[in-house]
Amino acid sequence: MKQKPEAISALRLSNATSEGILLTPTKQLHVLKPNAAGTKFIYLVMNPRGTNLAIAREVSRSHAATTN
Hints:
The chain is of the alpha+beta class. Helix content is 31%, strand content 22%.
């Protein structure tokens, strides 16, 4: 999570912001989403078969919004 600003800079996406991180190992999906304060994060691990990524991102977004 600490390397996100450096990655955005390296990709020359100066006006972009990151909403989270998606990792895709062979048989899993990992979604990391920081809370609004950036002090905690939601970490979801899912089986990619039968998983809707849009729904997974919305679940992580709604939980991050309620996490203090």
